Amino acid sequence: MARPGVYAIKTELRTLQSEQWQFLRQKTMYGGKAITAGDTVYLFASENSGGTGLVAKGCVIAAESVPRLIGVERQTPRVSLIIARTAFARQTLGRVELKGFTQWDDGRPETELNFKLYRQATDKIIGLSDVATAYLEGFFYEP
Question: What is the spatial distance between Cα 21 and Cα 111, in angstroms, rounded to a whole number?
Fold first, then answer.
């Protein structure tokens, strides 16, 4: 299950070097709707928008649930966020590097990331396990 307080977001990042990002109405899956201020987030620049995968780590400054639309039966929960960058990724990790990890029940962090981020092409916020969090920590240096 998702570790409280640790998430990943895959979305369009127009400015990779920003000290802060604002994301509006982001789709949530795999526990992502529980994100709150103070949580850690790993940022993946969506390859769907020309990105390269993992680029930064940050801290959620503000998080607000987006109200559901009236009259729409099935809706994915959405949140709006402001994230402050705390570190840059020191190496690439994206769809290409994770593509071969498809044994969905093998317990590997690479498989969890591939399943949650890339099995469906949609951009999203996801919750992360302890194993995936420890794995991602190896990709960072402090600014």
Answer: 27
